[in-house]
Amino acid sequence: MATTTLKAETISTAKLSAAIDKAVLIAAERHQVAVSDTNLRLNWELVGRRLRDAARAQAFASDVSKDITKNLGLKVQPATLQVGKLIYCGFFEKVRMPIERGF
Amino acid sequence: MNTSMPSPFSCPSAQPDMAEARVIGVVSGTAEAPRIAYLKAEAVMPASQVSMDGALSVSEVFRLAARCEEHRCSQFADGRCSLGERIVKGTDAVVDTLPSCTIRATCRWFAEQGEPACLRCPQVVTLIPLGRDKLSQAAALPAG
Questions:
Q1: Cα atoms found within 13 Å of the Cα of residue B14, Cβ hemisphere only
Q2: CA A74 to CA A84: how far, in whole Å?
Q3: Does residue A99 belong to the interface with chain B, where contact is any CB pair within 8 Å?
Q4: How far apart are CA B101 and CA A10, in angstroms?
Q5: Average pLDDT, stretch A29-53?
Q6: In this structure, how many other beta carbons lie within 10 angstroms of the beta carbon of residue B142?
Q7: Inter-chain residue contact A8 with B35, CB threshold 8 Å
Q8: B84-108 pLDDT tens trace
Q9: B131: pLDDT confidence band, cut at 50, 70 and 90?
Q10: Amino acid A40: pLDDT
Q11: pLDDT confidence of B67, banded at 50, 70, 90?
């Protein structure tokens, strides 16, 4: 008589990427959220300065970006980034954003 | 008792910010009946190497192990992991052979509950949507 054994699945390094893609789809369905269909790692390189005044940071970033575009001809995106208590403001170069890397 | 000594046991259902957190499995199966696919030893990776893009958390996609936090964990009671005990008492076995798991030698659930914990372990997903299934009920801390 044939018997069926229920075994837990195992994953090797070679199959890990496909397993992660499947896990993301399952989690998105379980938690009812929409996710992009590829894995992304976004490398953002903010060029700018550190400020203490968050209220003025975006205006500073916009002014700097306008000057960069006007004087250097670069297409940039003004941006403010707060990490904990640190406030960074400046710009992203549009040709550098975003870098998508599959994994 | 010297409480400064780190626990010799591993938590088999951990969060990424815990000490020695590492990915030991990936959620597989289906949305209705998720099952953990256990990583072979060569594929185990530190949780710090994993990042999600915002819509999902690491614990929703991966199964993590870490050093057992003992008294700092709400599941720890009377010197044991109450979650492991409730998993064994409150859920059915989903496999009939021991999973190929990389942490059994140090797993607190295995140390305290033995093989019955391992036979139920593949259905354990660390973050579970609210529901009335057996796993949700077993995972919930008792009132009081």
A1: 28
A2: 30
A3: no
A4: 9
A5: 74
A6: 7
A7: yes
A8: 999 999 999 999 999 999 999 999 9
A9: low
A10: 57
A11: very high
Query: With contacts defined as CB-CB under 8 Å, which chain B residues touch A13?
Result: 40, 42-43
CB B19 within 8 A of CB B60: no
Q: Report the residue count for chain B.
A: 144
Structure token pair of residue B143: 């009132």
Residues of B in contact with A36 (CB under 8 A): 53
- Residue ranges covered by each domain of chain B: 10-139
Q: Which one of A5, A13, A26 has the shortest CB-CB distance to B31?
A: A26
Domain boundaries, chain A: 47-96
**Nearest CB to A9: which of B30, B37, B51?**
B37
CA distance B137 to chain A (A): 17
pLDDT at B124 over 90: yes
Partners of residue B34 in chain A, C-beta under 8 Å = 26, 30
